[in-house]
Structure formats: structure tokens, C-alpha cells
Amino acid sequence: MNASSERSGVPLEQLFAELVTGVRLQSQELKALVGVCCLEEPAKLAEQLHRANESLKRVEAKMRTLQQYVAEEMACVPQIQEVCREAREQRRRAQALARALETEGRERRMNEVANGFRVEEAKENEPDSTSESVVSEASVARSRPRHRSGSRRSTEPVVPTIAPVSEHELSGVPGYIRGRVTLERLHAAVEEIHAILTVKYRLLARPQQQLSSAQLDQRCAYHDMETDETAGRFFFSDVDVRASAILKQDATGKAVLNVLRHLGRLKESRGGTHCRIWVVNEATG
């Protein structure tokens, strides 16, 4: 706003003050004109009209300057709003990255401590006798699990499995909750939830260096959804549900989640980004 005022050459406060003064002078001159008309003084009336005309022109010029100033300021409003939006987005990303880095550092330290304990335990359990330590290479090779080339090693996250719903349990659910949900649809939904959790927590378990930009954004979004209620718990959100064909939020899809919630398999809550989330209860894992 200061830059626009400098371009116009006159401060905003001074413009308003001069505008008010001009209006007052004009009203006084109009009163004087009325008095002149009553006194029938044509020469003085012409002079008063000339002064009133000049005063009106000055007021109109100041009004045009003011309108130009307001138009310039209003033209900058969308740019300022866009800058503010980008600043908020950058702050959100920075906070999410900081939380992700903190979590990864904590997990790395825990893994290092666990590896140290395993090394010390192996040294303590190492037999003293050379004859006992020499074991047949064939037996060792047979005892080791074989990994096919390109196969994943056993670093996959352990995702809880929702207990299947029995026919007796489903029949006990009130009709207004169950709707047209069948047992087969429930079993398919349970498998779909397990697949969603597997994909999600497999992504969270991967090192950040191996993630693409889109995967890193998805990981940050998952961390943003976490609350105190989800600490140490497994959950999925309505974002995951919308991407699923089996859990799509039509009447039957909503009824499926309501049935699982009624049976205690899931607990509905609100995530850190105010989205709907469903927490998998520990008793069902």
C-alpha cells in the first residue's frame, strides 16, 4: 500500500482530508450562492459560480486519484492470497517432513540398539569348544531359509487381520444397520481392508530415500492423519475407502463399515486433518 501511495504522490490520509475539506467548501459556496441570488448581485454570483466550479473540479480530480489507488490495491489482492496459500502449504509440508524425519530417526536408533543386542547375545552364546562350533555346512545351508532372487526379505510390517464375521453375528445386527449386506460382502470387505493396511504400512516402513515425490507426499499425508488415539494402532481413512471398489461409499458400502463398527471390528474417529478414519481394534487383530 505504501508503494501505491508513493506512485500517486499523495498519502491516503491527506487525500481523504482534502476530499472532506473540498466538500465543506463547496457546501459553503452553495449557501453563499443562495444568498447572492436573494440579494440579486449578478457579478458576485458569477464569481461565486466560477469558484464553485473550480472547487468541484479539484474534488473530482482527487476522487479519480483515489479510485485509481483503490483499483491498484484491489488488483494485488489475488496475488497476495496466492502467496499466503503457498506459504501455508509450504509450512504444512515442512512440518510433515520434520515429523517423518523424527519418526525415521527414532526407528533407526531403535533398530541399531536391537542389532547391538543381537550381536552381544550371539557373542555370549558362542560355544568355547572349536569342535562344537564346527558344524556341517550342508546342515547349516538346509537350516537357512532360501530367498529367491528378486523376492522380498522378511521386513514386511505385520498388519493385524480382522476376525471374520460369522453368520450368527451378522444375524444379530439390527436390520437398519445391516441393510442389504451379505456375509460374502463382509468377507470381501475384510480382505480389502487388510490389503489397504498392507499397502499403507509397507509404504510407511520403507526408507525415505527409496520413495518418489508422490509417495513422500502420501507418507506425509498419513502422518498428518495421526492423533493420540491412533498411537500404536492401525487405521485407514476415507481417502483409502474412496479409492476402493469394494468399500465405495454407496448405501451398501456404508452399511459394511457400519456393521464392522457395530461388531467391534472397527472404531470410527476423526484424524488429524479432520478426515474420517477407522481404527482396527486390537482385540480383532
From TrEMBL:
GO terms for molecular function: microtubule binding. Residues 131-142 have a biased composition (Low complexity). The keyword Coiled coil applies. Residues 49-104 form a coiled coil. Keywords: Coiled coil. One of its GO terms (biological process) is mitotic cell cycle. GO terms for cellular component: mitotic spindle; outer kinetochore; spindle microtubule. Pfam families: SKA1. Residues 112-158 are annotated as: Disordered. The keyword Coiled coil applies. Belongs to the SKA1 family. This is Spindle and kinetochore-associated protein 1. It comes from Cyanidium caldarium.
